[in-house]
Specification:
The chain has 184 residues and is mainly beta. The chain has 2 helices and 13 strands, in the order αββαβββββββββββ. Helices cover 4% and strands 57% of the residues.
């Protein structure tokens, strides 16, 4: 179940710009500054802004609710998720998404309520994002997967987990699901 929860991001490569001072032509002693372009990690994550909000995936056996919000001056996104079976929360966790300046790539860190933790590396691929994940389950077993996120529109995206392994053993791919923005 830990691999099922590794969650969405996409990658935005923005250009780093410096603020420009513009001379006001009306009077020589007055000047104004243009609004500075967003620099640093936040500009690299701007394409993820659509993720902010609450999302839900209602399956036959479980419901996954995810709340995503910007933190630390828009330098990171944090996603809190809960897996419910009926009225009982069976798993919950937190994911933080940020920019890795060394690898020049979006990276994420995930921690779950069973004691599992992992990281993901985000790769843009047309209208979808590929997330190579590596996870350590609470049992100590290593797990990995390739999660595919395809944004459909402002209120939905598709998610699938493929190339999954747990403890070195290949696992079946998970069927693609549609996740929708929670309207309640």
């Amino acid at each position: 179940l830990g691999l099922l929860i590794l969650t969405v991001t996409s990658l935005g490569f923005g250009q780093v710009e410096t603020p420009m001072k513009v001379q006001n032509t009306a009077t020589e002693d007055q000047s104004q500054k243009e609004e500075p372009a967003q620099v640093g990690p936040a500009s690299k994550l701007e394409d993820l802004d659509w993720m902010a909000g609450e999302w839900v995936d209602r399956g036959d056996n479980a419901t996954v609710v995810t709340r995503c919000e910007w933190i630390n001056n828009h330098q990171f996104l944090t996603r809190n998720f809960k897996v419910k079976v009926g009225d009982e929360v069976t798993l919950e966790g937190t994911q933080t998404i940020g920019w890795d300046p060394i690898r020049q790539q979006v990276r994420s860190w995930t921690f779950d309520s069973e004691g599992g933790f992992g990281e993901g590396w985000w790769i843009p691929d047309g209208d979808r994002w590929l997330v190579k994940t590596s996870f350590v389950l609470a049992t100590g077993e290593r797990a990995s997967a390739l999660n595919v996120y395809t944004r459909v529109d402002e209120n939905s995206f598709r998610w699938q987990s493929i190339d999954r392994e747990i403890g070195g053993e290949l696992q079946p791919s998970l069927a693609e699901v549609t996740v929708v923005r929670n309207s309640t």
